## 1
Amino acid sequence: MAHFTKANSVYDWLDQRLALTKLWKVLAAEYWIPKNINFLWAMGVVLMTMFTILVISGIFLLMYYKPDTKLAFDSVNYTIMQEVWFGWLWRHMHAVAASVVFLVIYIHMFTGIYYASYKRGREMIWISGMLLFVTFSAEAFSGYMLPWGQMSYWAAQVITNLFGGIPFIGDELVIWIRGNFYVSDPTLTRFFMLHVFLLPIIIMMLIGFHFYTLRIPHVNNQDGEDIDFDAEAEKYKAGLKKESKVIPFWPVFLSKDFFVLSVFMIFYFYLVFYHYDFAMDPINFDPADPMKTPPHIYPEWYFLWSYEVLRGFFFDVGPLSAMDMGLIAFGIANIIFFFLPWFDKDPTVAPADRRGGFFFWFWLMVIDMIVLTIWGKLPPTGINAYIGYLAAVGFLALWAALPALTGGRKGLLWLVILVTALLYIFGYMEYTKALGNGFVITVTFLIFYLLFFLSPVMVKAKGGAQ
Amino acid sequence: MNKELKILAIIVILVGITYWGIEPYAHSKMHPHHEPATFKYEDLKALNLKGDPQRGAQAIQNNGCTGCHSIKAAGIPAPMDPVSASASYGVNPPDLSNIAAVVDKKFLANFIKHPVKAAKLEHKFGSSKPYPMPDFFGSDQDLADIVAYLESIAKPQDPRGAFKVACGRCHDLRYDGWTVIGQKPKFKNEIEKAEFELKKAKYEANLKNYLGTTPPDLSMYIRSRGPEYIRDFVEDPQKLLHGTAMPRVGLTEAATEEVIKHLEHVGDRKKEKRDHLGIWVLAYFVILSVLAYLWKEKIWREVH
Amino acid sequence: MAKDRRDFLGMVFGGFAGLGGLAALYAMKRTWDPLPSVMAAGFTTVDLSPMKPGELRTVTWRGKPIFILKKPPMDNCKTIPDEPKKRLVKVGDSDYLVMIGLCTHLGCIPTWEPDKKIFHCACHGGEYDACGVNTFGPPPRPMDIPPFKIEGTKLVLGEEGPEYKKLVGKA
Ligand code: HEM
Ligand code: FES
């Protein structure tokens, strides 16, 4: 048994039993962060804060929200928005936070990609982060259904329908997920359960896991420098604060985060009070009506890029319908970021601007995802269909090219570019109806997917083992 | 620090482009542009005669208007209750006391003369399906007199009144307790409630039969459509929603503003609070940011 | 020897515990299944006898609009010579068109325009002729035919009768 002495203060009493001092050291005061970072490293704390806001505002929404298709709309739009004291505040905070949290997630993700913070021991950080992204997506999708407006309904209808594309079990799976043949009361109540209980719990556990994965490899820095954290920490503790390459999480790192966070809050609350339309689509203020489709159906902005990958394939290829082609690409798009550490064959940890071709890859990816996002919202008519196709194929092509690019395989890289160019030309011919579901195009797609799936396996990592 | 500003600038630009693409640009593609409402009703001919209210009162009697319409301001009761009226005409004909307070004078004259044309409902009504209100065959002077009379009795309307006169016989506004057959009363017992619901259901069925669809409840329209759309739509429904069963009702600009004010109150009554509190919250975070910056500078001075 | 037995017991214990877990999973899966009442409501019976020729009726089946058109104006079904006839169902002594009233493009509900004898989808301007065959715009295929069975003058939606199987070539 541990040895207890008479406590000389409440803190001491607790410390003897809970080891508070030690805990604080481990978690904050002697948790070391590189000094060489910029404000992009504050996004994690911003995300944590946004999630906290979501939980707190969610709890207060829960007090009056009614998960019943007959009551949901009015409980939100009348009771919460117009009767409950500050109900409107919680709702706007919740809806806007749900939207900007994705903006921050994307910035956080692309920071990781830019500075190569997903390899050389940081793979688990990356994977747990992606798991968070996926569960956040599920959380947002289930939450968007709750106010039971037109967009809630039709987005749910369209998205659940996508599961119908899975071979053999698709149709039954859709009914199983919905609990009915169409989105209706059982769908609302089960998604309510997911939204307010199961998914938040999973998210909290994943956040804990994500923090834990940071412990051993530590966070990266602006130069990708491999820091000896123990030695630098000793320096810091010895008082050589200016010479040491590290800073403690508390108070040095957090003091900067708090500043970034405060500025971010100005932006966030400006949206909450004066500019919420992008997060709360006006169409969703019409009550759900299964017999009346809104003229334009689109998901929330943060899903637009993958939605456009789905829609981008507008013609049949061999035995596969346009819808199947879209679904395959959509399925890939949703999980492909998990595999980034294995598509990137270059073991160097350095910012993209010091990694040659990867720099272009990074910016092409950013531009492509922005194009996908914008065209995901535009009506898919006329030339928009072809632009969507360019961007969707471009997205896959960037991934197919990555192993060759980072593994230094020039020949393979050119092959991917050539096949992609062919797909662009064939797509244009399909668009102008000059080509009808040809054999050549089927073969080209086959080669394209072969390159896509084989290159990450076949290309060897540069400089030996990974 | 310079580098951080550069990163921030890049993020702001990229986010700005994306925002522009998915909001203003995409919406301009989804909702084709239309000319804003002028409330001039230029397709209608003005009636350049001076009317005499007294003769107008007489003309209203002579032309049989009160066979369908009540004029409560003049003590003329409705010939039928709303539900029976809707069974006969599809919709309860309006009480004429305050019509002229919300409807444009030129429009009113044209509507009386030839309702289907003024309402722009030629695609719905014609010889095979006659409009419940017949054309007016009297002289233009009679018409001017009637309009003058209606103007003389009309009392200015507050926002709620304007809504009731202009929209309330076809649209519910449940967040304000308004139904197409009137304000929902406090029920003494379940029977009263059931009777009211039955009347409402009957009225709505007649209305649906008449228009082909049930006009929507407008409680949240201020958020789902926004004031500009409502304004332009009311002035000329066909322009924004081709083929709609909603008639052009010919409101004046001022009356439209009143209606919108009411919809704002009913659908978004916390807006003022929001706008007001927003300033304080933003100010709070501006100050917090300054303090955070000072604190951060102090702490980082030790390590840099 | 003793060690082996302990391991064997451990495996039996683990296996049995796993079995319980599977049983629990099964219960959870079943709880997500649609209720029997929901499944039973998956059938809609429509009496076709009171319908007038050329009249469009919309009924709901599984939350979807179903268009039923008696004696569709065939002169406006000219796209594919044989296609329209294949899409008609004989009930009693009249032909009917029965189809799911959702645009095959992105699922909006097209409206029937009796004067032009077409279905028009307001979402992206798709058009279908009086037989529900796509004639213009983005829709990729004719409107779908729901599974049905004929019972006298009644149509039962949701069950695959012989007429349905013949129509979609499943027989
Ligand atoms: C990752 C965290 C979360 C995300 C991304 C998220 C997202 C959303 C979204 C997009 C909506 C619809 C907003 C609207 O149009 O009003 C919503 C509604 C709602 N959420 Fe969440 N949410 C999160 C966490 C939570 C939590 C933890 C709770 C409760 C403990 C909660 C409770 C609710 C309730 C009751 C509603 C319905 C009220 C309403 O629509 O305003 N949410 N959520
Ligand atoms: S959904 Fe009908 S044309 Fe697009």
Note: Residues C 103, 105-106, 108, 121, 123-124, 126, 137-139 surround FE2/S2 (inorganic) cluster (ligand 2) (CB under 6 Å).
## 2
Amino acid sequence: MAEQGVAQVWRRIRAMYRIEGNKCETCGTHFFPPRPVCPECRRKGKLENYTFKGLGSIYTFSIVRQAPDDFKRQMPYVVAQVELDEGTRLTTQIVNVDPEDVEIGMRVRACFRKIKEFGHSGIIVYGYKFEPVMKVTGHKQ
Amino acid sequence: MSNRVAIAGVGMSKFGELWDKNLRDITLEAGMYTIFDAGVPGSDIDGMVIGNMSAGRFTGQEHLGAQAVDLSGLGDIPAYSVEAACASGGAAVRHAYMSIKSGEHDVMLVLGSEKMSDVNQTEAMNTISVASDWEWEGMFGATFPALYAFMARRHMMEYGTTEEHLALPTVKNHANAAHNEFAQFQRAVPIEVVMRSGMLADPLRVLHSAPITDGAAGLVMCREDLVKKYTDTPIFIESSAQRTDTLALHDRKSITTFNSVVSSTKSALQEASLELKDIDVLELHDSFSIGEIMLTEDVGIAKKGEGCKALEEGITEIGGKFPVNPSGGLKARGHPIGATGVAQIVELVLQLRGDADKRQVDGAEKGLAVNIGGTGATSIVHIVGR
Amino acid sequence: MVGIVGYGVYVPRYRIKTTDIAEVWGDTSGRIGKGLGVFEKSVPGPDEDVATISVEAARNAIKRSQIDPKDIGALYVGSESHPYAVKPTGTIVAEAIGCTHDMTCADFEFACKAGTAAMQVTMGLVLSKMIKIGLAIGSDTAQGRPGDALEYSAAAGGAAFLIGMKNPLATIEETVSFTTDTPDFWRREGEDFPSHGARFTGEPAYFRHVGEGAKSLFKKTKTTVDDYDYFIFHMPNGKFPIAMGKQLGVPAEKLEDSLVVRQIGNTYSGSAMIGLARILDIAKPGSKIFMVAYGSGAGSDAFSITVEDAIEERRGQVPTVDDYIERKTYVDYATYAKFRRKIKALG
Ligand SMILES: [Zn+2]
């Protein structure tokens, strides 16, 4: 037995902190979260760990205005499916943006945020959220 | 001996916020109505199956199969509990269908039940969320309405669906439920009210969403050759089909179509040797109005992207070519999760028997129900006929 | 020579104007903010804390340095607002930035100078060749009791400095510290907000320790004010560092560029380090920097730093301090109270 959430979160830390998924070397498909089997190649598939670059664009989104207690402090907040540049999608919050400025196709990058807390005395879960790409002074393309 | 599976009788509890009743009460109520309607002696029932999504979280009680058999006084017959999120009811029907077809059971009581109103909003939302991919969607703040909002947003972008369109299923289904004495909301709502209702997850509003409901529904299903003993108006299950898609919505190539619905509908029609044009009445899973719009397309009533047009043209109203959700659907009849799939069949049986009163689809002979689980990871389709 | 091989900062997006805070407590004159020299302060989002701020700053530092995070042998996070009372912030940061598991890590606390203490420790480890690269982070989401003077300045932000020997962007010639037991500011275990000695935080605390640290560094390096192009003093508000500069005879223009406190408030463990980062963002190679960080309780860490040529090619990789300062969205006091858990009903 473990305290609520502890082991459940701990075993996913690499995926949640760094967007570590995997890639099927046979067909070249990237997976996030990591898959135990390539659904296309199945036994012919060869899965290797892959850390995503954390860049992508918004595929679809919503602004959540009724949420469970864990999220009340953040309401209204934006959730989206982000299509990563490697070609797979994930579900995530979009932060550092005004909800009315979000649109399909918007470029975003991964950032590091608190995902949830197991109450006042429980563990804190960290992981990826996404934000609009930021201005970098002096950056040359 | 014919191989068909018959429905001898149907029953339901009232759907709604049933403050004075617990899970046992509503399950028993639906069970008793069903058995009376079927005219089946309890001793003839040799198996029971109950569809339920999450009684453990909603009420603290699991092992519902044994509980239901115990309450109904059905002796020591085998009892099964099945779960497929919002498709748990459909899964129970299919479980009984397969059990009877295989010859393992002859007469079965099928129940679907959910008591949802005993928990607070957070617990209700989180419990519903586990129908999607909890670890990779729900935990990241994507509430269940938000996932359907994802679909709606894409549907709007890809096909020009408008906020007005999103209100149409609600308006139609509420009008239908006004004539359903078991429905949670027996009243029409004007489109302006729908469009003014509070935002849940943009662009989806409160009145685009099925409510939190307590309720149970039941069927007695049996071998075709036995059904004449019990009723003069048997209804038959022409086919049953089920398909699966990815658990997480983000893993699908397109989120404006439910592949599982397209293929399970096709398979069900094929197995029944029918075409969509032969279907007279449908119950489609409208947990959110965008769901009904997409299902209208996915079962083939409208082309992809034209589900709203079908609604606008009244094709899916009672009296239209393909009446959808004469019961009021999940939106207005209510959506006690595990009961919904069974309640859909109950409605089709009433329609086919001609017992649907003011919401009767004239001369309905074949009905089709689509019950989906999660955001479409499970789709269960049943076609019934008389 | 040991030096800074990479650095990065992070400042949350939200700001509240000090005049908006003053109004809530009945002051409409704008006198308080002006008196403190703090016009607005950064506010962390509801999902930001020292761990998230540290990770963002560390990722920027690594990207700028182009080092392999697996070469980091020690990681220390200095803060007085670690999310856990017991359980390190550093392990979260290490895992998030892709460090090896074969490293050492700890959290530091010394009020506002825990981050510079971490710099000193990593310098020692690098110089003794125990590690190749060390990561020193100063980061805080500072709390001020509603209505207290601290509320006008307590802000959020962080800076991460990679300390190593190879290709430094700036070398650290010398560091000294001055330490006494002076209780000018504290927070007892289990308390939500810190307490302070009011005017006692000035002369016997900040000015004595920063002043002694500075004098000690001048003496040890045999330098004077004239030998330096830029000065950075810990910024509890906009007033103290300027007064300190005057006492030490520092021309205002040599201090001006480090005064981030005016726009983002006091980021505590991040304060002097963000000031240093802002200088590194703009200083020409060969520039000499004099920094004194201060931590209540009390102590100061002083550093003498020279900017190297390598810095120029590392610019434009990650957001500058000004990029973060300019990226801002104002919130009102109600939103600030919601984000900062001052609304008790929300837990
Ligand atoms: Zn493959």
Note: Chain B has a mean pLDDT of 97.
